[in-house]
TrEMBL record:
Coiled coil: none annotated. Homodimer. Dirigent proteins impart stereoselectivity on the phenoxy radical-coupling reaction, yielding optically active lignans from two molecules of coniferyl alcohol in the biosynthesis of lignans, flavonolignans, and alkaloids and thus plays a central role in plant secondary metabolism. It comes from Tetracentron sinense. Gene3D superfamilies: Allene oxide cyclase-like (2.40.480.10). Pfam families: Dirigent (PF03018). This is Dirigent protein.
């Protein structure tokens, strides 16, 4: 038994050395997959709720269209709902409903006409702001928009700048829709939680 203790001790020392070496940091960098962070140490203060109100101008026809159809299914031309079309947008966001109203940002992204039975789109777009407190900040939405419904709600899925870690929702309400030109002005009320 007297010889067992030194063997156990040297085995324990070797095991501990291997364990320490396996956890050693190479060149001062840790290679772990994840770690928990303290929001305060990242400069995040108390979360707040902001309400934004603006108008979205979707111009399909005219001298300067802000949305362009880039793809369509073979059946799009015969579909009453334009099912299968994909549109890219760069729509102005203004303070008021008039196109001449003060520009506060742009909505950039895509929407896909994704309903066979009614005019419904899946919207994936980022609202980029160029005025006021949120200048240089963005938030993104991804959701279903049943265009002919009175009020549509879509989720906010993230953001940048002052909208980092953003979450919330937008409510879209058609202000004007010209069925002949397909041009529309949509009122947006945004409720966004952010730091």
């Amino acid at each position: 038994m007297a010889g067992t203790l030194p063997k156990f001790t040297s085995t324990l020392v070797i095991f501990c050395t291997i364990l320490l070496l396996s956890n050693a940091v190479t060149d001062g960098e840790s290679h772990q997959f994840y770690r928990s962070l303290c929001p305060k140490k990242m400069g995040l203060k108390q979360e707040k709720l902001s309400h934004l109100h603006f108008y979205f101008h979707d111009v399909v026809t005219g001298l300067n269209p802000t949305c362009v159809r880039v793809a369509e299914a073979p059946t799009t031309n015969t579909s009453e709902t334009w099912f299968g079309a994909v549109v890219v947008i760069d729509d102005p966001l203004t303070e008021g409903p008039e196109p001449s109203s003060k520009l506060v940002g742009r909505a950039q992204g895509t929407y896909t006409l994704a309903s066979q039975n009614e005019v419904g789109v899946i919207m994936a777009m980022t609202f980029a702001f160029m005025e006021g407190k949120f200048k240089g900040s963005t938030f993104s939405i991804l959701g279903r928009n049943m265009v002919l419904s009175n009020v549509r709600e879509m989720p906010i899925v993230g953001g940048s700048g002052l909208f980092r870690f953003a979450r919330g929702y937008v409510q879209a309400k058609t202000h004007i829709l010209n069925f002949e030109t397909k041009n529309a002005i949509v009122e947006y009320n945004v409720y966004v939680l952010h730091y």
